[in-house]
TrEMBL record:
It comes from Folsomia candida (Springtail). This is ATP-binding cassette sub-family B member 10, mitochondrial. GO terms for biological process: oligopeptide export from mitochondrion. The lineage of its organism: Eukaryota, Metazoa, Ecdysozoa, Arthropoda, Hexapoda. GO terms for molecular function: ABC-type oligopeptide transporter activity; ATP binding; ATP hydrolysis activity. One of its GO terms (cellular component) is mitochondrial inner membrane.
Amino acid sequence: MRKLETMYELAASENLNLCVGTGIVMMTSLVSLGLQHRFGQLIDTISSKSEVLVQSCTVILCFFAFLSALAFFKYYFLETAADRVRNRIRVRFFSCMLIQPMTFFDHYGSAGLINRLSDDANLLADTTTKQLAQGLGEIFTVIVFTYQMITLSRSLSIVAFCIFIPLAGLTLLLGLGLRYLRAEVQSRIANSMQVAHERISAVSTVRAFCKESEEISHFSTECDKVLAISWKSTLVHAFFHSAMDLSNGVMIVGVMYWGGRLLYQSHISPGTLITFLLYARVVGKAMKGVSFFYTSLVKGMSASERIQEVIETLPGKGGQETDVGEGTRTLDTVEGNIRFHSVSFAYADNPVLSEINLDIPAGGIFAVFGASGAGKTTLARLLLRLYDVKDGEGTIKLDGVNIRSLEPEWLRRQIGYVSQDPVLFSGSIRTNILYGMASGTNIPADQLDSLLYKAAKDANALEFILRLPDKFETLVGERGELLSGGQRQRIAIARALIKNPKILLFDEATSACDLENERLIQEALDGIGKNRTVIIIAHRMSSIKIAAKIAVIEDGKSAEVGSYQNLMAIPFGKFKRLVDGPGT
């Protein structure tokens, strides 16, 4: 019961539309009742005067016109409610999803989350609006028409329900396994969508390694798994609905047989028998609608569980562990002094850093150097508070203040971050650079353009942007695929610079660039590094030569720290070995 309450809480804001829609459904049932009764009267008066026939047909036509009007309003109110609930669920789901800890995204695939945001939200919205109103209407129809059947003929009613109720009860038992089958179907679909999402987003890699056939086979295997469980679900559905049709048919035949006998004995009139058969047909159809509502409810509960799993999982509440604490402090001014003191960190059970000690002075260029997999990127994630250092495993301080006490969003606004493979969003170059501005920033258009041009110029991106036909309005494509790698990097640097951060963090920002683009980025660093703390994380020697101080990370530990000249002067030093290469 609690799961049902939770599911329908999502539609509570549309109570008015739902009440109106449900009322219209019930009114449709009452009008239909009158229509069936009028048909019965027509049978009994069909041999009377022609005026009576014309009058009856006119009344029946008016019934149909009224039913048509009710159908219009029912569709309008219920579809409006469904659209609004669907929109509200998606916004709420997306909002809750974005505040989850990073471990949440490590655990759930992006395609699985998109599947919940799309298919599950659709199913849940329909179940809590249209299917709910229709289901309540069908239950109302069963109650009203059953009462009318009993009033019309108790003997026929006993025959009808002695046949129908046992068969309908057996069919309802088939629905008990639908919920679990539906949940399994959705899980398998999410897995297949994850495979498709990964391969489509990396289609160039798939094609470069000539793996099209293997990936098609892989996806086909995942789809076959969906098909296998869907077949079981479809089989149960088929038995469910065919059994309901059989129940309805047997009931009609039983009523016809017993009613025919009563008619021969003159206990009922032909009109009464026809009316009762029409009532029975409506009840049978309504019971099938109730069964459909039941199956929809089962599907909706599965979708609700998958949606609520995210919506109700608030970081730091309900037993959910969070990667980032609830820091609330901000600093009036930021100098940019950063210190890592005895920092250790692990992803789940995989240790990455061990007793790291780094002192990064304000206003200079500091490089973190090491082989791939040494733990350099983890340092960046910890500084950005994408993850937090756990109690007893060291501290990271900004200007002498533990960053765990600082408000995460405020801290991130002080840091301009450029990753190895920066993601640009579909849209123009302008919108991608302005994405770096703090939310809620209200700057006049002319000043904003000035900031935009300055950021692009400082990032050595202005020249190539102005050569493009649409300049800053040029569309970059999905993930920036319409630009070269070096152009994407420089747009990303401009995005980091436009908010004028006190700290710049470059995580392998030139590792994928050619020599010319790397030179342009290095020139940009020479200019933008003034009066800022610049941290360059790299494994290429060419990327760190401009650094005043270099820290060498090896196997998650601080190996050496010093200037380039000092580190190269250490005989058999780790830095010298990495620079000179193996065997030197």
